[in-house]
Design goal:
- The protein is mainly beta and 163 residues long.
- The chain has two helices and eight strands.
- It has a five-stranded mixed β-sheet, with no helix packed on it. The chain has a three-stranded antiparallel β-sheet with strand order 6-7-8, with no helix packed on it.
Length: 163
């Protein structure tokens, strides 16, 4: 699997790339299915979520992407009646936030290794733990800084144009 486009999260006014997909748990637990369009190998899930932590609670505050019918993915489309934000009560798990320079690129999922990772753990959407793991220092001054997808294949959509 190709390295994936990260979701993003805002914590204490700082934005991070997020190598975890909490919304996948919601779809699995609720049984709700959406037909997201996938036009590149770096975004197999078909959407990107935007998250924030406020008062130690995890919220989904935005979504972008396209449904197979061509309509835009919005928070209100997935969570009717909640156009601005949704408390992620369904999510219990740990979110990985890679930091620093790239140490080792892995062309799969979120497998690349960076100088450090911040881990934030949630229990039913409530922050319970936050810690940092140091993975080493980049020996190459030219190493890329911050999470990024280094390669992807874009597929033409049904209409023939590329997005």
């Amino acid at each position: 699997m190709t390295a994936q486009i990260a979701e993003e999260i805002n914590i204490d006014g700082e934005r991070f790339a997020m190598c975890t997909e909490p919304l996948a748990d919601y779809f699995e637990l609720s049984g709700k299915r959406f037909n997201f369009a996938t036009n590149c190998t770096a975004l197999w899930r078909g959407y990107v979520g935007c998250w924030e932590v406020q008062k130690n609670r995890l919220y989904l505050v935005g979504m972008s992407g396209t449904l197979e019918d061509g309509s835009d993915v919005t928070l209100a489309a997935v969570f009717p009646g909640c156009p601005d934000r949704v408390f992620a009560h369904w999510f219990s798990g740990t979110v990985r936030l890679p930091q620093g320079k790239l140490l080792k690129y892995r062309h799969m999922g979120y497998g690349s290794i960076y100088e450090s990772d911040i881990f934030i753990t949630f229990d039913h959407g409530v922050l319970t733990q936050r810690y940092t793991n140091n993975n080493g220092a980049a020996g190459n001054e030219g190493a890329s800084n911050g999470y990024q997808v280094n390669a992807m294949t874009v597929f033409p959509n049904a209409g023939g144009d590329q997005r």
